[in-house]
Structure formats: structure tokens, C-alpha cells
Design a protein that fits this description.
The protein has 490 residues and is of the alpha/beta class. Helices cover 32% and strands 20% of the residues. Helix 4 packs parallel to helix 5, helix 5 runs antiparallel to helix 9 and helix 10 runs parallel beside helix 13. The radius of gyration is 24 Å and the shape is elongated. The protein starts with 8 loop residues before the first strand and ends in an 11-residue tail after the last helix.
Length: 490
Amino acid sequence: MQYHFHAPIITFHDTSLSDLAQLTVPVALVVIPSEQKAAWLQSDAGHDLALADSLGRPLERQVGAQWQQLVFLPEQPVKGTKLYQSIRDAAALVANLPCSELALHLEGFTPAAATLLSELLLQALLSARIPLPSSKHGSEPRPVFTTIHCSPAVTLSLPALLGEVEGNGLARHLAAMPASELGASQYRQRVRELAAKEGWHCHEWDQRELALRGAGAFLAVARGAEDDGAAIVHLRYAPANAGSKVALVGKGICHDSGGYNLKINGGMYGMHLDMGGSAVALGTLLAISRAGLPIEVDCWLAIAENHIGPRAFRPSEVVTAANGKTIEVVDTDAEGRMVLADTLVLAAEQAPDLLIDYATLTGACKRALGSRYSGLFCNRPEWLAELVEIGQHSGERVWPFPLDEDYDDTLKSDWADLLQCAPGASCDHIDAARFLSHFVPATLPWLHIDLSGFRHKGGHGVVSSEITGFGVRLTLALLAQSRFIANRAV
């Protein structure tokens, strides 16, 4: 199952609603300010639709050879949950239709509102048409959009828009692939091919090289597999005009059995999604590369599988991470923080201006937040309020948790520098973040995102699928605020 994104031809016109049908486009999505709905339905143009609206039916009409679907959105849109839900609902009205050409028309909006809504609707429409992997017989994929005509003629950065859609789609596609088709070795092969296609530097730290580097935390998890497929893969995008440097780190556990602390009662089902953090890091890299952003990016993928077997790591072992910290293993199902620990050490050695890691890391975070938000940890507490606001505006909401040092009391070991996690019940999402903080220098700005929102029925932001790719859009919105990568103030 190869991922392929077909970017449509997007054109912009100053077509009026009365002239829209003259475009030789079979389907049109017409968007009108909700504040004008009552007056519009009472007009000659909307008279026939008033009855359908009173019955709660979709507002649609045939104008010549063109079928038009009408929706009403706020004239002064404020980014937030309600707006994004409306955007996904509007896109769904036409996303499932068997057409490859579409008109998107906004009537009666201010230029600023028309620009914002056009951008969001285009992203939602294109995201909805990206097919996720399926092994069903007889299922016909929807045709891709080849052409979209937009009116009015707003100004958008199409490389950035299309890059975000493609990057998010890649993250969702990889996560949806079954474990039978995306084990560690297959994943590495796909990444290798993508890097060659995109012209990225690619280096695979295999297990031999990691052993020489002393990456005992990662290798403890990797050794349970029968093959030597696990590796830390380093990708680099380095444009000549780069003004800053960002490191993206992702947890890439292609399947998580729990190891000797075996997942039970259905807990192992869906654990092919445990590589979601690495998919987000890779998708974000692709989006940045496609948009040609002037940011150097080091992307680190901690690719492994957590198996059970005679070679698998066990509770009560002591292993040494790449920075020399010794770790007492408590629970083999807390493998994500182990592979991230060594990967964070390698990433930090490249001295980025900002380090972000993504991981479907803890059930505790999902129990705390559900799947509507993801958890946020940051070693720059003065950034938290603005990061929460960026999450609200991007449609990928995050909520901050504490990272205070006294939480380390739970991670004190009698035999090693650190416990891997707390024995028994604890606030494990906070414990995990505190554990990871020991592998990131305090001088380096760092964000840890616990992806409880990576899978949510109904979607997030402009994405309507249950596998959301949460994190790509959030990161791009964050990086657009240059202050997060403009200095290294402690």
C-alpha cells in the first residue's frame, strides 16, 4: 500500500453566484454567511429552499447542469472547535460525491473571512479525499480532485496548504497500515525510499551502531524481535536559506505487545498505531519540505517493535542510556519512553533551536483528557498559554501538564539513576515526561506531546477521519510563530 497524494489544479476567480453555473463544473459548494441565512432564504434565489431548511434537509439545488450544495458559516469566523466541526461537515457534503472537478464559492464574506474559510475548506476537502489503506474486496476508491475552482480570488500559499494536507495524509496513511505490512524493516524501507525521492539526508543508526554509541535503553526494547529491524532513523532537510534549526522526534513502535508485561483484555488490539508519533514527525517534515520553509529540520524516528520472547527485556533489568544514565526497568509496556530516551540524546547533540517529540505514549494521558485534546509538556513554562492558544486556533487542541522536578521523587531507584516508571498507580503521563526530561539538556527548549488525540472519532481540525494525524497542523502553526525558534534563552 503505497501512499500517493495527487495535488489538484486550484484556480481562483472573481465569479459571482449568478455566474457560477457558467463554469463547466458539475458540482459546486456554495458558502453563505449564516447571518444572512434568513434574508437569503426569503429571496427569490432561496425561496424554494426554505421548506427544505424548515424540515432540516440539506440545502441543494440544480442550476443548469450544475448541482449546488449550500452551507452557511459565520461571517466573522473565529477559529475553534465549533468552526472546525462546521468546516468538516461542509466538506463532507461533497467529499463523497463521485466527481473529480469542483467549484468552491463564497458569497458575501469580507476578504479576510473569505480567505480563512477558503483555506480551511480546501484543506478539509482534500484531506477527506485521501484514501487510507484498505484490504476490503470490492471497495472502489473515490476519485481524487483534479481541479478545484475557487471564488472569490483570494490569496493563499498553495505550497504550504498542499504540503500540510500531504504531510498529514502521510501520517494517517502510515498509521493505518496493518502490522503485517509495516513492521520495523518495512517502515525503514519506506522512509529510505521517501528520503531518496525528496532529497533528504538519511542515516540509519542500526543496532550495531547503537551498541557502539551505548544506546542501551533503545536496544533493550529492540532485542525482543527475531530480526534486527529496529533502528533510529535520522533525516535532514537543510535548505540554503535556513534561519533556524528544529528537531522532530517520533516514537515508532510498529507493534506493541507489552512485552513480558503483556497487554491483556483486548489492550493489544490497535497497537499497530503505536508508531503514530514517528508518522507525525515524518509528515511534518514532508509538509515543511513541500512548502520550502526556511527551517533546517532534523527528524528522528525511533523505529522498533515491542515483542515477547527469550531475548526480550524484563522488569528489574538495569540498562544504560546513551547519555550514561542508568535505568531500572519496571514495566516492559512502558517501552516508548525507553526508545525515546536514546533518540532524544542523539537529537539534542545536534544543538537544535527547538526540540519537539511526539508519542502515543501513555494511557494515563488519554484517561485524563480523552481523545479531544493531546497532552503538552514544555520546559519553558512561559510558553504554555500561547501554545494552548495555538492549539485552539489550529483545531488540534493541547492541554499543559506540570513538569516540576519534585515529580522525580516517584522515579527514584535503589539500584539505578532512574526508575523507568513508577511501580503501581501513578500520574504516568507526568512521570513519563519527567523521565524523558533527563535526556534533554535544560538549556534546550523542548516540547513533549503525548498524542491522546491521534485517534478520535469525528476527527480533529480539518481532518474528518478517526486516525487524525494530530500534530502536523499544530506544529506548522507553532513554527509560523518565529519566536519559538528565534532564540535560545534559558
